[in-house]
Write a structure and sequence with these properties.
CATH superfamily of the largest domain: Porin
Strand order of the largest sheet: 1-2-3-4-5-6-7-8-9-11-12-15-16-17-18-19
Radius of gyration: 33 Å
Oligomer: single chain
Number of strands: 19
CATH class of the largest domain: Mainly Beta
Helix content: 10-25%
Structural class: alpha+beta
Shape: globular
Order of helices and strands: HHHEEEEEHEHEEEHEEEEEHHEEEEE
CATH architecture of the largest domain: Beta Barrel
């Protein structure tokens, strides 16, 4: 019996020590899954059951002295204590996670005064029509609300997200321009619903000693790029320069810390894969273009997926330029799908002519693009209270096909192969006007002269190679007014050539100045009130020398004479 009693004492002592040690273990890991430690307790309980069975067998043979507590009762008490201890661990686990959760809110109220002068042009041309227009928008008010959520599950795993709403006061209209889609839908005024601007996970690991790597996946931090941090008077909030890539994007990327190998501070190489997938079910331009249901049933007329590869090297420079960030950024688009023009009133008939007279010649790809950006930004340059930046970029596009709107002359009894619709009248003019049998076709063929041109990669044909460049320069100065919380004044200038591809449709700037094919001046004054409240007064002067073609990087950019001025006042509250 003494043997049983000794076993019991040893077991109770060991288990008591375990109860004291286990909280330290679980608190140290901080964010282990509840299922993990419950599973371990289940193993301990199973072992207790096995010990109980052995003790019961021993009791049957030896008996228990009067007044002594049975092992079964002791173990039952231990099991009750363990259940209570699991509840305590649940609370510890919840608190540990909540301590790592960071939730911040931002509210911006902005007023814009716009002034526009310029001419309208005949569609798809540079030919001006009508008188010069002078139009104004007075004190357009918008609200922008954001919820930023950050949590570090552990040192090796972090989650970031931002919900965003931008809304014109009491307005219920959807914007027409710039186009509203997945590259900017939470960054331009729309409805009052919160949209996911970014939601991504960083997974950190070190496969090789002194070579830390981060895997990032989700809706990536591709908005608010440099130098937005200067105008917004905030820390860095994006991976890339705005003039390189400032649109909302989904994808995955790898970042490699090279500091140990380069000897330079904050050296890193990034490789990112972004993919844009079209919704094949329907479109929201008041037309149902397909009755196919399910994303696995591809609509043959819809655009193909767009894939983008991004590569970037960044580092802080050495020596007296130790506060200067250097970025070298590359974008490669191996296959550019043609634009889906079914929502266009000009092109809609070409997609749905049952006679076959009108049809669309749609290639899988219209070409390839390569964009290179070099960016420098220095904070408090040489301790002069000046933050300055310089960005230059070069774009090379190679068109290898185009979306074409065609007619098949054989359907109406005319000879020859299919031709572009807008050229059909000139091609068959001598036959149409010289034949009495088909005079009714003359008005139809004349009307087709206004059909869209071939839509290529920043061109109206299928073989043009284009070169473009842009630069962006500016800075801000912290005024020596200490009693007014260090206000700042800034100035920026950017220029883009005719075939420039800005990729900045999600910029916080409503004019998306870094996508402008022309010149832009931007001046602003920042007045902090405290750490939570900031005012900004600004003025933007933009000259558009060329339009955006058909849309984005589709079609030839034609000359325009648009002059846009924007005066704005905004109030930022951050909590």
């Amino acid at each position: 019996m003494q043997y049983v009693h000794n076993i019991k004492q040893v077991f109770l002592l060991s288990f008591t020590i375990s109860l004291f040690l286990l909280p330290g273990v679980f608190i140290s890991v901080g964010t282990c899954d509840n299922a993990v430690y419950k599973e371990e307790f289940d193993i301990i309980l199973k072992q207790l059951d096995e010990i109980t069975e052995k003790i019961e067998e021993f009791e049957d043979q030896q008996g228990i002295p009067d007044g002594e507590e049975s092992p079964e009762e002791t173990i039952e008490m231990i099991q009750d204590d363990m259940d209570e201890f699991i509840d305590i661990l649940d609370e510890v686990e919840k608190k540990s996670i909540m301590d790592k959760l960071e939730l911040r809110a931002e509210l911006r109220t902005r007023f814009d005064w716009y002034d526009f002068t310029g001419h309208d042009t005949i569609p798809f041309t540079s030919e001006m029509i009508g008188d010069e227009k002078h139009e104004k928008v007075h004190a357009l008010p918008t609200n922008r609300f954001r919820l930023n959520l950050h949590t570090g599950v552990d040192d090796w795993l972090r989650f970031h997200s931002r919900l965003s709403m931008t809304h014109i006061w009491a307005d219920d209209d959807s914007p027409i321009y710039p186009e509203k889609n997945l590259i900017n839908e939470s960054r331009i005024p729309s409805d009052i619903s919160l949209k996911v601007e970014r939601a991504y996970v960083d997974l950190f690991f070190e496969p090789i000693e002194n070579l830390p790597i981060a895997l990032t996946f989700g809706r990536l931090p591709t908005t608010d790029g440099f130098p937005t941090n200067l105008r917004e008077d905030s820390a860095r909030k994006s991976t890339y320069p705005s003039m390189a890539y400032d649109v909302e994007a989904d994808g995955l990327g790898v970042s490699i810390d090279l500091s140990q190998y380069t000897g330079l501070k904050n050296s890193a190489y990034r490789l990112v894969y972004i993919r844009r997938c079209e919704d094949h079910e329907s479109y929201s331009f008041s037309k149902t273009l397909t009755q196919k249901k399910g994303i696995y049933r591809s609509d043959d007329l819809a655009s193909s997926n767009l894939e983008i590869l991004i590569s970037q090297f960044e580092t802080l420079l050495p020596g007296i330029f130790h506060d200067t960030l250097f970025l070298l950024h590359f974008i490669y688009i191996p296959k550019t799908p043609p634009q889906d023009m079914r929502f266009s009133d000009d092109a809609y008939p070409f997609y749905y002519d049952p006679t076959g007279f009108l049809f669309v010649d749609k290639p899988d790809s219209i070409g390839t693009s390569l964009k290179t950006t070099c960016y420098l930004e220095s904070n408090n340059f040489l301790n002069l209270h000046i933050d300055a930046f310089l960005g230059i970029a070069y774009v090379k596009t190679k068109a290898n096909d185009a979306l074409k709107f065609m007619v098949d002359p054989s359907v109406v009894g005319l000879p020859g192969p299919p031709v572009q619709a807008r050229d059909a009248y000139e091609t068959y003019k001598h036959l149409l006007e010289g034949s009495a049998s088909i005079p009714n076709l003359v008005p139809i063929f004349k009307q087709l002269q206004s059909a869209p041109p071939a839509i290529g990669l920043v061109c109206n044909d299928d073989h043009s190679d284009r070169d473009a460049y842009a630069f962006h320069i500016g800075g801000r100065y912290q005024l020596p007014f200490f009693k007014t919380n260090h206000p700042k004044i800034g100035i920026e200038y950017n220029y883009g050539s005719q075939y420039w591809l800005g990729f900045s449709e999600a910029s916080e700037d409503p004019l998306h100045k870094l996508s402008n094919r022309g010149s832009t001046w931007d001046i602003y004054y920042i007045q902090p009130v405290n750490r939570y409240l900031t005012f900004r007064l600004g003025f933007t002067d933009m000259h558009k020398d060329y339009d955006h073609g058909i849309s984005f990087y589709f079609g030839e950019p034609n000359a325009v004479d648009h002059h846009i001025q924007n005066t704005y006042l905004l109030m930022d509250a951050r909590f």
